[in-house]
Each structure stands twice: as C-alpha cells, then as structure tokens.
Amino acid sequence: MITKKALPRRTFLRGLGAAVGLPFLDAMTPALSAATKAPVRMGFVYVPNGMDVRNWNLDYEGRLTKLSRILAPLEPHKEDILVTSNLTHNNGRALLDGAGDHGRCCGSYLTGVQPRKSAVDIQCGISMDQIVANKVGNQTRFPSLELGMEDARQAGDCDSGYSCAYTNNLAWRSETQPLPPILDPRALFERLFGADAGLTPEEKARRNKYRRSILDFVQADTAKLKSTLGPSDNRKLDEYLSSVREIERQIERAEKDNAQIDPGMPKPYGVPADFAEHFKLMTDMLTVALQSDMSRVFTFLVTREGTSRAYREIGISDGHHPLTHHQNKPELMEKVSQINTYHVKQFSEWLGRLKKIQEGDSTLLDNSMIVYGAGLCDGNRHNHEDLPTLVAGRAGGYIKSGRRVVYRKETPMSNLFLTMMDRMGVQVEHFGDSTGPLGGLSLS
C-alpha cells in the first residue's frame, strides 16, 4: 500500500538567503493516480538584424529532409522543429512615424503594434508574453523571465531614449513600460536562487563575506529531502544540483577572466567576452528555471536589435549591422551567413540539453514551444514580410513538428501568437493585427 504523500510541485530547498527549486520528480506524482502532466513552457529567442534568407529558406514544403545552410546545425533536432514561411509583421513597417526599422521590428515583435517615435516618451503595447504571464504567472515563482546579451547604451551607439527602449526590449508590461532583460549571468543567478529579502544587513554581509556555493546554504534541506526519495529521484536530484553547481563555476571563471581583460567599454560584471560562453551560461540558467518550474514564460534577446557586435571568435571583425547592409556584395553576405549559422548552432546545442531532461514519458523540449527568429527578414532590404521563424518543441503534444509549413503571403505573425496564447490557457479574441488562430501547427 502506498501511503507516502506526494511531494508538492512547487517545493524549494531553502537556506540562508537561498531558495533552489526542484526538477520534475516521480515523488511529485500523486500516489495511486495517473502521472502528473508536466506544464507547457513558452519562450522567444530573438536574433537581430534579419537573416541571409538565401541560406535560411527551404525550397520545399512538408516533412523536413535536407536543411538549409543556416538551419543545418539543427539537423539532430529536425524532428523537434516546425519551420514557417510568410508570417509578417505589418506594424513593423513604416506605416506611421515609427522609431526606425530596427526599433519598429523589435518593439512590434511581441506587441503586434507599431512603436511611437518620441524623444521624451515611449509608447508601444503590452507584449503577448506578459498577457500570458498576467494570467498564469501566479502558478510559478516568476511570472516571466527576461534575458539578453547586450545593451545599446553600453555599446555606445544608442542615439535616444526611445531608440534604446525599442531596440533593447522584447517584453512590455504596459504601453509605456518595457521589462529590461537581465544581461549579467551573476545577476540572473542571484535572481533565480537568491532569497535574501528577509535577511538582516548583518546576515547579508556575513553571507557575502563568506560566499560559498548556493548549494551549501541549502545543504540541510537537501539531506532531509533526499532521505525521503527513492533511488530514481535521488539520481535526478543529484544531476540537477550538479548542473546548478557547474553554472556557478562557469560564472566564477567568467568573473575571474573579466577581471584580467579590459573590454574597452562598460560591461556588466561577469559577462563573458565570448558569445558562445555567454549564451550557454544564460541558457543553462534558463534551463534550470524551466526544469524546476520557476517560470513558464521567457524572452531572450540575443544581442539587441541593430547591434554592430563583431564575432572575432569565428574570424569576423566587422560589425554585424554594417555587414547586413551588404549591397549584395558576396564577401559581406558570406559573413552574414556565418553569423546567422553561428547563432543557430548555439540554439541547437541548447535544444540538445533540453531534450536530455526527462519529464515522465516526455522531455523538457517536448513540453515547450520556443520561437526562434528575427523581426526583419532580409537585413539589407529591411523588409518585414516572410520573417525567418521556427518553433522548437511540441507544446506538450499540440504541435506536429518535423515540418515546414508555408502560409499565405502576408499572414500576420500575430496569428501565431494568438494560437500560442490559447495553448497556454489564455483565450483572447484579438491580438495586434491578428485575423484569427494560425492553422497548420497541429495535424489534428
């Protein structure tokens, strides 16, 4: 007879100034009941400056077979992605006095409305991730998480307050309030695992003076929990906590390296100079947050829109944004393709880590729907139709992946977002310039 109580899904290991959420464990399945279904997570990974669409687009529809050059790093996961064509953001275009193409494409991406240009005020619209967070965010520790990798003000090429607001933010809590992304891995780590609101100044000072692993502070709680778990759950917990500790080590290494490097510009403390290292650190922490159900909604701005970042680690010293204005020069277009492929490679490696995390009979990736794409199509033309877009994950069995779906030209991107909101349990009749739910995601 099974008499043990089920472990609550929102269980935390707690200690001095620390709170570590738990992954999905067998002990969270109610005794003598059907398996508890893992929650669906929704997220957006936004890449800047459009795409070299020659090397992104596929020349066929239906089941994914041979991938294009830029999508090729996703070969191990092609059964886990859905590639779309002809989704358009009409409000990213210069219909009104918008904030420039880069400001409009980023500001309108999740809001579906055109940002207003003003040197003293900003006005956009509430983003769909926040509409979802406002409805379901009370089920998790954080209603939503906002991540990024670059700030225009630190790069030194932000010409005004409104431009910074639009190119630096995907998430908007209200028409005038963006939610700035966290850029510094240390800041993200302490937001996820810190719980020092109730600590006295003396306790905070003592914790910082004798900084140890966050896991040291929850050691007693961990030992108590492990004594109640079975072998399978203990193994899962050990693997999960080991991943948290490895993130700490990576952050410590990055901070040590940065102390010895003069980047030549202001930069958040602890941000790795290497793009791939920074991306992995941020996505490793995001993985832990999703795995432990700290949040089910996230946005990730992979460097700001309009960035002129160079990618010297792959031999490109030119700025990304200037390269996209290539005027069809083959040598410049080649570099844009290399950058686009490099971004997809990092995304693919992250999907591989999500696929390894079991949640009952499925995986963390199976139970997610993650949009990867850009707010511009061709960075040289600055066009807003046929945006490069794919959806990774199956949204808990809703999305039939492993396909390319071609929609009618000028199909609103907002239709996709309307459908995603519905999958998250948030029903709205209209969003942005939507004309209705987006068909073709599921074969049912």
The dominant shape is globular
Biggest sheet, strands in spatial order? 4-14-5-13-12-3-9-6
Structural class: alpha/beta
CATH architecture of the largest domain: 3-Layer(aba) Sandwich
Q: Distance between termini?
A: 40 Å
What is Rg? 22 Å
Unreliable stretches, pLDDT < 50, 5 or more residues? 260-268
Q: Strand share of the residues?
A: 5-15%
Q: State mean pLDDT (0 to 100 scale).
A: 85
Number of strands: 14
Q: Specify the biggest β-sheet.
A: 8 strands, mixed
Number of helices: 13
Helix share of residues? Answer: 25-40%
CATH topology value of the largest domain: Alkaline Phosphatase, subunit A
Instruction: Please indicate the count of domains.
Output: 2
Task: Write up what this structure looks like.
With 444 residues, the chain is α/β, with parallel strands linked by helices. The protein has two domains: 1-36 and 185-270, no CATH class; 41-183 and 298-423, 3-Layer(aba) Sandwich (Alkaline Phosphatase, subunit A), CATH 3.40.720. Helix content is 33%, strand content 14%. The chain contains 13 helices and 14 strands. Strands 4-14-5-13-12-3-9-6 form an eight-stranded mixed beta sheet, with helices on both faces. β1 (12-15) and β2 form a beta hairpin. The longest helix has 28 residues, at 231-258. The model is unreliable at 260-268 (pLDDT under 50).
